[in-house]
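Supplementary Methods. Inverse-folding protocol.

Structures were first reduced to a discrete structure-token string of length 562. This string, shown here, constituted the complete conditioning input.
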């Protein structure tokens, strides 16, 4: 009986009670009431008694089942009402039943939604797909698919739908269970952007390592050219006819050095180093590289104030801002092309002095809605953009105690005004004679040179020998270790950081442990995290970067020897 519907259960109970009454009522009455008159009287009222008794029993049974049904109904209604899933039943493109979650995701009242056709609530491009899936469900298939619903405020939301066919009073209806997946899809999209961003980061890291290796080798060549040119200039003097040619070679080497530095800027291998900066020098130099990056369709125009104030900052960071602004402008102007203007001028705001760099393009412009989002991380309107260009710019400018302003109109281009606090200092000038002439006497002082590049090793040996130092010139750490066993007390050690058999840092630590009074100078063409100034100072080491000049080496030796 447990599986039978309530009406059948009641009918069976009625048959059982009725059967017992018919079979046993007469016998029970005769046994209890044996006197003929009393027996006849009881028999007369027996039918009435049966009707009353069975009625009361049936009333309790029916009430019991109705309570059970009411409880089940309340449970079902509670589940549907409190379900986070949007549930509705549709028939002939009309919603005939719904729960509050559907009202919540669509923004309508129950009366409003029931007056609408189902097609009015679905995004136009999804209507045919929804109809097709609904037809399949009515034919008996349980469907699961994605669609787009149209909210009351006009916003389109993404939903995932499960559809099941119902049959109520011989009429086919559709049970639709929906979940809003708009935020989920946004998270997936953000995740994909992050993946792409980290992929770009890994590519940049790889390029950075390659660039760092190229820069190292190139700086070795520049150091050799630098060194031999300056040594020659020291020997022949300023008045020799060839001296001007040598100075030109040195100037060209300095330009080559700037190119290698810019290569490290692009590969992000340089740590921030704040110093007084002159934008009149930085912008024109960097624009030469910028022209190759943003392409021939973009014309670059520069306008710099004649008496432009200095700023205090990291050159790499400033060039990063210029690069990001330029690539942003390029993307806004392609494929047609246009003009990108960089202007720098002095500004006074509330008695505070700033240098303002204006970046102006003739591109598409920025909508009012996007103006509030463009500095957010991962916000982009480009198909393959990372959404980090302007975010990085704003962070760099803030680190320099500056700020950015924006002017833009759709179809009329964009202007970014980047403000950096002005910096005032007295620039020391040095005469030509003093630049290449450093007075130092190395008599009775021993210098160990560890450098695997023969040209650089020869330059350093020749330079220090000419200043009366006793020079020991080696190319490997192993040779240095053997020399240490002879208990030679070196006053100064000049070691390349990247020796072929061991790191310069490692062998210099060994030398420092054995000869604590020795002055250590590490030479490097790499800009690596291991060579942080704090770490070097803690170890008592000094650092010089390639390409360097002989006079820079002598200056450093003179400084640390005082």
């Amino acid at each position: 009986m447990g599986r039978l519907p309530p009406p059948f259960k009641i009918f069976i109970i009625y048959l059982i009670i009725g059967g017992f009454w018919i079979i046993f009522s007469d016998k029970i009455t005769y046994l209890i009431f044996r006197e003929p008159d009393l027996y006849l009287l009881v028999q007369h009222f027996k039918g009435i008694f049966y009707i009353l008794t069975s009625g009361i029993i049936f009333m309790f049974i029916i009430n019991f089942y109705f309570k059970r049904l009411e409880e089940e109904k309340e449970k079902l209604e509670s589940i549907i009402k409190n379900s986070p899933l949007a549930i509705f039943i549709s028939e002939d493109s009309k919603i005939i039943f719904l729960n509050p979650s559907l009202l919540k995701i669509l923004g309508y009242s129950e009366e409003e939604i029931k007056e609408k056709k189902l097609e009015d609530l679905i995004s136009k491009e999804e209507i045919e797909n929804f109809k097709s899936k609904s037809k399949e469900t009515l034919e008996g298939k349980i469907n699961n698919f994605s669609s787009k619903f149209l909210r009351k405020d006009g916003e389109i939301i993404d939903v995932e739908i499960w559809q099941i066919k119902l049959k109520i009073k011989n009429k086919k209806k559709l049970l639709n269970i929906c979940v809003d997946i708009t935020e989920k899809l946004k998270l997936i999209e953000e995740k994909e952007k992050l993946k792409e961003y980290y992929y770009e980061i890994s590519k940049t890291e790889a390029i950075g390592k390659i660039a760092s290796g190229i820069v190292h080798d190139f700086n070795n060549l520049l150091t050799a050219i630098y060194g031999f040119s300056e040594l020659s200039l020291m020997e022949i003097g300023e008045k020799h006819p060839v001296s001007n040619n040598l100075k030109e070679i040195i100037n060209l080497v300095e330009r080559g050095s700037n190119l290698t530095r810019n290569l490290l800027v692009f590969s992000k291998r340089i740590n921030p180093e704040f110093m007084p900066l002159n934008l009149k020098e930085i912008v024109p130099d960097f624009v030469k590289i910028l022209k190759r990056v943003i392409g021939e369709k973009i014309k670059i125009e520069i306008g710099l104030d004649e008496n432009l104030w200095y700023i205090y900052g990291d050159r790499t960071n400033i060039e990063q801002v210029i690069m990001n602004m330029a690539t942003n402008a390029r993307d806004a102007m392609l494929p047609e092309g246009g003009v990108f203007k960089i202007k720098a001028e002095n500004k006074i705001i509330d008695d505070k002095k700033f240098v303002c760099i204006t970046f102006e393009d003739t591109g598409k412009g920025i909508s009012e809605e996007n103006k509030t989002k463009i500095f957010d991380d991962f916000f982009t309107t480009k198909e393959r953009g990372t959404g980090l260009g302007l975010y990085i710019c704003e962070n760099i400018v803030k680190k320099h105690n500056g700020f950015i302003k924006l002017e833009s109109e759709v179809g009329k281009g964009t202007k970014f005004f980047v403000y950096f606090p002005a910096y005032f200092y007295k620039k020391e000038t040095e005469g030509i004679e003093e630049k290449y002439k450093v007075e130092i006497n190395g008599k009775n002082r021993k210098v160990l040179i560890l450098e695997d590049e023969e040209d650089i090793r020869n330059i350093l040996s020749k330079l220090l020998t000419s200043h009366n130092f006793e020079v020991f010139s080696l190319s490997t750490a192993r040779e240095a270790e053997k020399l240490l066993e002879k208990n030679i007390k070196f006053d100064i050690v000049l070691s390349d950081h990247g020796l072929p058999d061991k790191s310069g840092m490692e062998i210099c630590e060994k030398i420092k442990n054995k000869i604590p009074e020795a002055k250590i100078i590490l030479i490097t063409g790499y800009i690596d995290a291991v060579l942080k100034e704090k770490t070097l100072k803690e170890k008592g080491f000094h650092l010089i970067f390639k390409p360097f000049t002989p006079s820079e080496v002598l200056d450093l030796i003179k400084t640390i020897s005082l």
